[in-house]
């Protein structure tokens, strides 16, 4: 069951908790706030990553053209060819199932959490700090964040940042 697997990653616990809430659609996106009757005047209804779409969890993290670009770039980085599935649950499962062994799987899950976290941070930066929501910058952030977590939390010999950006699979198998 997915809810056992989601904790099976060395990401920081607050980040794993956020991913868990996201998979249950319990994060404060614009559409979730509206459903609960909470109107926040300074939070726009529109997704920060595109034009004309309401910000829902599934949109912001999966279907938005900006989010799709991030996922495609991340999968290319991991050497995976993946058809984007219709839900975040399935995306999580597809990523898990793509790992050839336990070490790679832990690394892939770390990168999953880094991707979710970086998308949310970039969304908040865009709304609350007037920063840009740029897929290329988000991908860089994911690589840096997952590399730092891998150094601190994965029981593998440390690798250099350039090695991690070149081939995380090679770092994970050392
Ligand atoms: Zn969008």
Describe the structure.
It is a single chain. This protein starts with a helix and ends with a helix. It has one domain (12-172). The protein is mainly α and 174 residues long. The protein is built from ten helices and no strands. Helix content is 63%, strand content 0%. 30% of the residues are buried. Bound molecules: zinc ion. Zinc ion binds next to loops.
What distinguishing features does this structure have?
globular, mainly alpha, single chain, binds zinc ion
Summarize the structure.
With about 170 residues, the chain is mainly α. It is built from ten helices and no strands. The protein is about 65% helix and about 0% strand.
SSE diagram, text form:
Layout (H helix, E strand, L loop, with lengths): L1 H4 L7 H11 L6 H6 L21 H7 L1 H13 L10 H11 L3 H27 L6 H19 L7 H6 L1 H5 L2
What is the total domain count?
A: 1
Shape: globular
Radius of gyration: 16 Å
How would a crystallographer describe the biggest sheet? Answer: none
Gap between N and C termini, in Å? 29 Å
- Low-pLDDT runs: none
Strand element count: 0
Small molecules in complex: zinc ion
